[in-house]
Amino acid sequence: MPQAALQKNILHYPQLDTILRVERFIKENSGEYKKKSLWQNLSKKTIYQTFCVIFDYLLESGKIAQDKEGWVVWIWNPELARRYLSKPHLSWRK
Which domains does the chain have, with CATH numbers? Predict the structure, then answer.
């Protein structure tokens, strides 16, 4: 998570089902919403502060990105990552 999020007093941490619901919504609607409208269009109401914790987590983990205008897109592609990690010349070195 970003340093700013770690320094905040987080009153409520999100539950796994809430995180998965937000992830699924962003995947299905990639590039269609900005942050606030994304939150407003979720199927179930979520506290905005909780949504911000999830959003910051997804940004830091590299699953989503925002362009310079603020549009949110899903960028995580595990199949592509597996393909690159299976190549010997791209493996991790110890």
Answer: 3-90 (1.10.10)
Structure tokens, 5:
């999020």
**Ramachandran sector of residue 91 (left: φ over 0; alpha: ψ -120 to 50; beta: rest):** beta
Q: Is pLDDT at 59 greater than 90 in this prediction?
A: yes
pLDDT, tens digit (0-9, with 9 covering 90-100), for 9-43: 777 789 999 999 999 999 999 999 999 999 999 98
Q: For residue 72, give the 3-state DSSP assignment.
A: strand
Contact 58, 65 (CB under 8 A): no
Dist. CA 84–CA 31, nearest whole Å: 25
